[in-house]
């Protein structure tokens, strides 16, 4: 429920009150004596879905944007007429739960901090995320998401497009571009400092750090996360619920991959940075695409109905453009996903081959103690570089033909030859 406080312009008192009476809206009127062109202030409660149509109709009868209109939350309204008004507007669809267009615009503005604060908080969140990735600590990485100020720009672009607020659109677009560059740049500088000061070993193989490696070779599931974050973000802002939590989810899609890209740059591995950078771009584009589609589906339209056609065409162009770019990136992520699938399949088949060879009668005394597939570092499309099989058996040396047999059988499952190393451990049973 909302309580609307509206200043009544001179000469519009009777018109506004008649409009409220015709709609069965209870109101309280107080005289205004400030001599600033207003004769009264009228207070009236409204159900959430009634705010937008009622304010639009009041503007049609003479309440312009210069008049003060304040919309605040109302905890409880006891009135039979209000219950009738609620039944009229609340019909159980998505438009019933959403806030008004006016509130949506105000909320999008309020979620975007000043530029200096945005820069500082983005840099801090990127540095914290970089530290968390080096520590391989999910808790620290999650902490970096909490302080990231990304939800405002990420959702403001969609809001500005749908309600025909091009100033909000341009500001949000600029903030997002600057935010991405700042996050990657801050992460790269901090990672370079960490490396040259030996806080972590300069020879550290970043592909061995789980929190980093999983973002250097992203797959299609990352696209699902970004689309979900965009839809949830718009629904949360449109209904006024759990905005902070969804902001963390949006930051999860952007800040850690940006930090991973910065680390790869600092380590001089541009191919590794490609996968993380693509993940950042596809995530930010997917958030915006999901936001646009969700807002339009929720029924938000520009205030001026004469600009509806132009706004609809603009939204369609932006949706089409974003969809095409996301589709291109999705193909790239799909290729990475397929590469990961082939690697997993090879690893499973190679392990089965090792077990099969050692189950043969001539090698009945031997067993697989450990099996490991070592990957190359050709990110983002990694592949098997060598297979290490640790075999246990009677004291002495392993039969020479064992290594040849394993090499032959394992390489049946790969297009490019893979080295096979056999490590033999003599076992003594007591």
Describe this structure in words.
It is a single chain. The protein has 430 residues and is α+β, with helices and mostly antiparallel strands. It has 15 helices and seven strands. It has helices at residues 13-22, 51-60, 80-89, 94-97, 101-111, 115-135, 138-147, 151-162, 166-196, 210-216, 220-239, 243-266, 270-297, 308-358, 400-410, and strands at residues 2-9, 28-31, 38-46, 69-73, 367-375, 384-393, 419-426. The strands form two sheets. The protein has a four-stranded antiparallel β-sheet. A three-stranded mixed β-sheet has the order 5-6-7, covered by helices on one side. Strand 6, helix 15 and strand 7 form a beta-alpha-beta unit. The radius of gyration is 30 Å and the shape is elongated. The N and C termini lie far apart (79 Å). The relative contact order is 0.08. The mean pLDDT is 83. It comes from Haloterrigena salifodinae. This is TIGR00341 family protein. InterPro entries: DUF389 (IPR005240). Keywords: Membrane, Transmembrane, Transmembrane helix. The chain crosses the membrane at residues 115-135, 141-163, 175-196, 216-235, 242-267, 273-298, 319-341.
